Structure prediction request, 119 residues.
Amino acid sequence: QVQLVESGGGLVQAGGSLRLSCAASGPTFSNYDMGWFRQAPGKEREFVARISWSGGSTRYADSVKGRFTISRDNGENLVFLKMNSLKPEDTAVYYCAARPSGGIEVNYWGQGTQVTVSS
Prediction:
């Protein structure tokens, strides 16, 4: 069982930056690929970024490529999402997710953290 707790959300002006953190419980954190998803009001949840269990491979949605960076610290069971050059359309609840390495579906979700970007 993996529990995920996000933090770091808040209100920021367009062009600003935020860093989201996700703290994971459990001794097998390094067995999981980790990701970030987001859901804006009235929209479906969408993929934002993913990082492999080792941190050696990352993937980003086209909408955030070049602005967001995902990273992880397996020693501390932490995943980060550094968000730069934020836009109003980045406003959403951001969710941390865990998927067994090499798996297809997300097994665990965090409760989400709100990010609001004002214009």
Remarks:
- The chain has a mean pLDDT of 95.
- The radius of gyration is 13 Å.
